[in-house]
Amino acid sequence: MASRLLLRTALRATTSCRVAPAPALRRCMSAGGIPTDEEQATGLEKVIMRAMKEGTDPYSMMKPKSYAGSKADPHLVPSITNKRVVGCVCEEDNTAVVWFWLHEGEAQRCPSCGSHYKLVPHELPH
C-alpha cells in the first residue's frame, strides 16, 4: 500500500511540474578544463619537456647511442674536463669492472678487452 502511494506521488510530481533538465556536470577548472602536463609544468620540468618535444636530450637522460668500439668508431665519452675515469665491463657476463683514466685526444683502448673510447667535450646546459 505504501509503495502504491509513493508511486502515485512520484508520478504526479513528474507530470505536474516540468523542470528544465539540469546541465550535465563537467570536470573542469575555472575556464579551460584540466590543464595538460605541458601547460602545468614550470622550471626545469618545462625545459626538459620542451627539449624532448624538439627531439633533443639536454641532460643526457636518454640511452646513449651504441658504437662499435673499434678504432674507427670508438665509444664517445662526454666530459666537462680534459680527463675522466671510465669503467669497462669487458664481457657481457663479467662481474668485474675494469677502471681506467681516459684523456683528451685520440681514442684509447681498454687495457683488458681492447675496446676503444674517446673523450669528447661536453657543455653543461645551464
Topology:
Layout: H1 2-16, H2 37-40, H3 43-54, E1 75-79, E2 83-88, E3 98-103, E4 108-109, E5 116-121
Task: Provide structural commentary.
The protein has three helices and five strands; from the N terminus they run αααβββββ. By secondary structure, it is an alpha+beta fold. It has a three-stranded mixed sheet, with no helix packed on it. Strands 2-3 form a two-stranded antiparallel ribbon. The longest helix has 15 residues, at 2-16. It is elongated and about 95 Å long. The mean pLDDT is 81.
Number of strands: 5
The biggest sheet, with number of strands, parallel, antiparallel or mixed sense and barrel status, is: 3 strands, mixed
Radius of gyration: 33 Å
Mean pLDDT: 81
How far apart are the first and last residues' alpha carbons, in Å? 79 Å
List keywords for this structure.
two-stranded antiparallel sheet, 25% helix, three-stranded mixed sheet, 126 residues, elongated, alpha+beta, 5 strands
Summarize the structure.
This protein has 126 residues and is α+β, with helices and mostly antiparallel strands. The strands form 2 sheets. Strands 1-5-4 form a 3-stranded mixed sheet, with no helix packed on it. Strands 2-3 form a two-stranded antiparallel sheet. The radius of gyration is 33 Å and the shape is elongated.
